[in-house]
Write a structure and sequence with these properties.
Number of helices: 19
Shape: elongated
Radius of gyration: 31 Å
Distance between the termini: 60 Å
Structural class: mainly alpha
Strand order of the largest sheet: 1-2
Largest sheet: 2 strands, antiparallel
Order of helices and strands: HHHHHHEEHEHEHHEHHEHHHHHHH
Helix content: 55-70%
Number of strands: 6
Length: 465
């Protein structure tokens, strides 16, 4: 495959071309190149710091690696399959730049601890980017909620009308889902930010390295205490994929609601042209492609989590080539989550408009105030279960008569129970039904305003306030 063998003189010939292509990872692990360069620079500094190489050699290696970084950014360094992976590609180019001293870079290091370090540096960076996008999405949710505290929307259980809600309260539910996502990512970062550099292939090294020094240069919080664990651990990647899957669950749930809300049957929102598409055959159509794609892309992230679990579940210690398969799914999950967070934020901010008049109509045309009739009687001394059964009969007879509860006359109410008075109509008005639910965390307007203040503190302080 190549004129110069990557491997030792143990091998007499190159790989079969088809096997070389099958074995290579350069087409996807090039994603790690900047992290590989950063990790290699730290390793070179550590080698010089410990006297394993001279300070001059350390400086040559550092400078040569930085040149490769600039070449890559300028599109001048584009290694192909003959390099096999990003690590060999960098080392080969480094040797071309600085000569034989470049061959010293791999001293006291294996590709096993090298790739583990690169992946952790990559994921640490990407988690922060995702957390920033979560915050942007949460901000959009709060901005819309601020303007819709007293906008009413039907609340559902079993996708059946249940009780009316403040629209802001509904949106705040997603804010809190995303807050848990943000906190999960923060927690995952703790396990990501542990350095395997210096673990070698599996058993450490005979060289007098300083793993803590290298970890400090790379801003890792600590180092792996066991070299076998250090090179074979992918728990941190699985944890991230779990967190990413939950983010997608939450985005998909909201997407499903937006899809329903934009349908002719609901008509709760209007899709703007900037975030919708049409039909190739039906000119009247306006399709909710953004939430549909988010809902669809959720499955690929779930799949990557399952794939990673399957990869790991049967691996003996320590490193195995199977672990080459950890990257494509991880990279794709990162990119998918970032893209979906951005798309949903744009959709909410710029691509849809709630229809308050239609929402108000929706909460006024059902029996979602039935519980409030039972509560009305219970507050006047009627046992709740008795009141519950009575209201059930009222709903049944009203449906048969083609009436809503608000349409019943006071005489009809009092025939049902003498405790009813003229204030029953105010008690069952949609606005009062929502306002009255003022228990902590409820949908009452006063509570929602407090929840919004608390959510703003969360964005400011980074934790639940």
């Amino acid at each position: 495959m190549t004129k110069e063998q990557t491997w030792s003189q143990r091998f007499e010939s190159a790989l079969h071309p088809a096997i070389a292509r099958f074995n290579a990872s350069i087409n996807f692990d090039i994603e790690l190149i900047e992290y590989d360069l950063t990790g290699s620079q730290a390793h070179a500094k550590m080698l010089a710091h410990t006297g394993i190489i001279s300070p001059e050699e350390g400086e040559q290696l550092f400078t040569g690696l930085e040149q490769i970084r600039q070449e890559y950014r300028q599109g001048k360094f584009l290694p192909g399959v003959d390099a096999e992976d990003v690590h060999f590609a960098v080392e080969r180019r480094l040797t071309e730049i600085v000569g034989d001293v470049g061959k010293k870079l791999h001293t006291a290091r294996s590709r096993n601890d090298q790739v583990g370090t690169d992946t952790r540096l990559y994921l640490r960076d990407q988690i922060q980017q995702i957390k920033d996008k979560v915050r942007e999405f949460q901000t959009v949710l709060l901005d819309i909620a601020d303007n819709n505290v007293e906008t009413l929307i039907p609340g559902y259980t079993h996708l059946q009308r249940a009780q009316p809600l403040s629209l802001a309260h509904h949106l705040l539910a997603y804010f809190h889902m995303m807050q848990r996502d943000w906190e999960r990512l923060t927690d995952v970062e703790k396990r990501v930010n542990i350095s395997p550099l210096g673990c070698g292939a599996l058993a450490g090294t005979t060289f007098p390295i300083d793993r803590h020094y290298a970890a400090k240069v790379l801003q890792f919080d600590k180092i792996y205490a066991n070299s076998l664990d250090g090179v074979s651990d992918r728990d941190f990647a699985i944890e991230f994929l779990c967190a990413a899957s939950l983010i997608m669950v939450h985005l998909s749930r909201l997407s499903e609601e937006i899809i329903l809300w934009s349908s002719e049957e609901f008509r709760f929102v209007t899709l703007k042209d900037s975030c919708a598409t049409g039909s190739s055959i039906m000119p009247q159509k306006k399709n909710p492609d953004v939430p549909e794609l988010v809902r669809g892309k959720t499955g690929r992230v779930f799949g990557h989590l399952q794939a990673m679990l399957v990869i790991m579940k049967g691996l003996p210690l320590a490193y195995n080539k199977d672990l080459q398969e950890d990257k494509e799914g991880l990279f794709d999950s990162v990119n998918t989550v970032k893209a979906c967070l951005e798309a949903i934020a744009i959709l909410l901010r710029e691509g849809l408009k709630f229809r308050p008049e239609r929402l108000a109509q929706a909460v006024a045309e059902d029996f979602s105030n039935a519980t409030d009739v039972a509560d009305y009687l219970a507050a006047r001394g009627v046992p709740f279960r008795e009141a519950y059964n009575l209201v059930g009969k009222v709903v049944k007879t009203s449906i048969a008569a083609g009436k809503l509860l608000k349409d019943l006359s006071l005489e009809e109410w009092q025939q049902l129970h003498p405790a009813f008075a003229a204030d029953i109509y105010e008690a069952i008005s949609p606005r009062q039904v929502v306002a009255a639910r003022n228990s902590y965390g409820g949908t009452g307007f006063a509570q929602v305003k407090e929840q919004l203040l608390s959510a703003r503190r969360v964005l400011r302080d980074g934790e639940v306030g």
